[in-house]
Amino acid sequence: LGVDASTDRAASLVKPWKNCTDPPTPEERAADKYQCDRQCRWHAEGGSAGAPGPHFSNRSVIGKPIKFRYLVWRNSDSLNKKMCCCWQEQPGGGHRNMNDVVDGLENMPLVPRTSVKSFQIDDTWSGTGKEEDGGFDCDYVCTEDPYGSLRTLRRSDVDAAVSNGTKKLHCGRCATCSAMRDIEVLAGTREWITEAMTTVGVEFARPLGEGFKNVSHLQHSLYNIGFNLSMDRRDDSPSCMDCWTDNIMCDAVQCVGPCWTKFFDPKQTPNCIACDEKRCGPEFIKCAGANRRSSGIISDIERDIKTVCRDGAFSHTHEEDLPTWSGYSKKEI
Fold first, then answer.
1. What are the tens digits of pLDDT across the range 79-105?
2. Which whole-number Å values give the CA distances from 158 to 151, 152, 294, in the listed order?
3. Helix %, strand %, coil % for the chain, to 5?
């Protein structure tokens, strides 16, 4: 590749970027634990660490990793890391190339394979738990109107709506897991699901096991132990179960170091929880909308009570009145 020494533009591209001209095969996506799918949906065509782009909920956007080495680009240090090439599957077949053109070079993979993301604290019931970062004070509440439709309301409008038959579901905007059916699953499994989900996730993450190559098996394993979230999709949108299994796979890629003890003991650790909330949590709550904290449920993970929503479906329900489902058996996994 020629170099224009009079500019600060690209000096050389050491490893070819031709991989970004061919969309990924199903096998390539599976081997990557669908990490680049998730990264492309967050980052491609306008996303950033601070906020997702326009394709966040679009399951037709897919990606694959390449190891990318690009020297002396805009006075930056050498880049030698994994990036993601992104495409969008088209209704009539084929794929739309979503990769960038930079300094005249086409198909540049500018989406990072791993990244820290920010919670969308204005729209979701979320945050880091640190007072200086804000969060857990979102002005929106997801509700169900008397006709069974989900509606996002501002807090100031909720009481009037409730007096007319509307039900409060969770703090934050309505999203994929906002239906009462899914929130009841969160409540009924609250005493054991963290450990059970960890056990299931570890079985799929073991290097010599079946791994995440069969996401359908992962989802049905969760469903069969009683974590039976809705699995129906509309168009190219995710199901509630997709939100949860995406989170499991994100942890398997981005938090394998802090969470390594899970391979021997399924109990959560502070370091593992912290990594999940820093690298995978923002994606998850944006996708799901409802989790235990946003629905007013005290779960098996110790939380600051100030971070538990007071306008959720179960915010004012006594423990003995919550739906409670029997625990799981490892034989069911």
1. 457 889 999 999 999 999 998 766 666
2. 10, 9, 16
3. 35, 15, 50
